[in-house]
Amino acid sequence: MDIFKNRNFVKLFFAALASQMGSTVGNMAFAFYLLEHFSSKPYYATIAELMYSLPTLFVFVIVGVVADRFDRKKVAENCDWIRAIMTACLFFALFTNSIPLIFFILFLRSAVTKFFYPAESSLVQAILRKDQYAQASGLNQVLFSIFLVFGVGLGALAYRTVGIHGAVLVDLISFVLSALLIRSCKIPKSARLPNGRVSWKGLHISSAVSDFLEGIRYILHNRLLSLIIFGFFIFGFVQGSFAVLPLFTMKYELAPNSYEMYSSLFAIFLGAGLLVGSTVSTFFAKKIKPFPMFVTPIFLTSIFVFLLGFVDEVEFYLSIIFLIGMCIGPVNVAIGGWIPNIVHPKLMGRVSGWIDPLMMFAQSATLLCIALLFPNIIRNIDLLYYGMALIILFVFFFYMILMPKYLNEKQHRLGKNTIKSVL
């Protein structure tokens, strides 16, 4: 693919790979460490997961603002340096066996991570041609899928071979490598500072909130962008459902005696499906229009999720999960190619900064609903699958009816020019 002829993209791609490596290996190894050393306190592993997600609630207002107002290259690079320093602190904190201190460091490191991806994705938008956005999105999905498939195995391998301290050192080296790769990129100043240079002294809470609200107005003013962002919100419900339903299905229906193993296989099969779907859609991104590549897999996903309610064999269940993963891949590639095309570069950070909190809110709401409904009100897990299938089918019809109205060249130009009426 000609996208790899762009040296800046290659460096950013491998920087994202190293950064993801630094976030995945240590986190998974730490989960094994907690389960082994604090087996009588399994809630420690749950609290650790909260340390990775809760920071979103504290920083989501300023994440996108920082990516848009400051040098995006320096933001991404400094995120890696700060995480490397925090990882070094984590290395020594593990010798103290102070769980509160370790959790605090994990919380801070995760908060810094939230600033990395909006800045990195904004840089990618600036260095690629429009016809390369979908390919870049597909490659990022392939990267995500690889870690979804092998993340648990890499964490387990690191923990069993070099121990928790060795796994943390792998994290540190990965962050340093990512920072060096980003520093070596030669990106024009106009791409790094599309809104001009701003000093930290000029950033106040009021200005950050104003910029954050400006991002909301921009999203709402661009109907096509609003539909796509709404899609992320809906997919948060699906993500929340799949966070627990496979575990419940294995525990209470398909494999009560070996549900831990099959729950792990769920992630592997889903990740493998994502890997195949993302890889195929990346190669065909220029030959297939984004709209059919987006809506057709959504319809197929609703059918496959509905079928999960009828499954009584674990092998059949995992096979359907693989097919669902194949469907999710093209959807993510299509969305990832659309957003850079219709979002003005000056507001890319603020738009990207909205995706994570919206998905997290939907995911948390879904988990709360499932906790309240199952098994007190809804005793049959299959009904939850049917309900999720109906939600996905609603999304399909929603997009089939509304989205074609905005998929034309005029709307794409509007997405680029909306900033004039917002600023």
Automatic annotation (TrEMBL):
Keyword Nucleus applies: no
Keywords: Cell membrane, Membrane, Transmembrane, Transmembrane helix, Transport
Signal peptide: none
Subcellular location, record wording: Cell membrane
Domain of life: Bacteria
A Gene Ontology term for the protein's cellular component: plasma membrane
Listed transmembrane segments: 12-35, 47-67, 138-158, 164-182, 224-249, 261-284, 291-310, 316-339, 360-378, 384-403
Molecular function as annotated in GO: transmembrane transporter activity
Domain Major facilitator superfamily (MFS) profile per the UniProt entry, residue ranges: 8-407
Principal cellular location given in the protein's record: membrane
Membrane topology according to the record: Multi-pass membrane protein
PANTHER family: MACROLIDE-EFFLUX PROTEIN (PTHR43266:SF8)
NCBIfam families: 2A0121
Stated name of the protein: MFS transporter
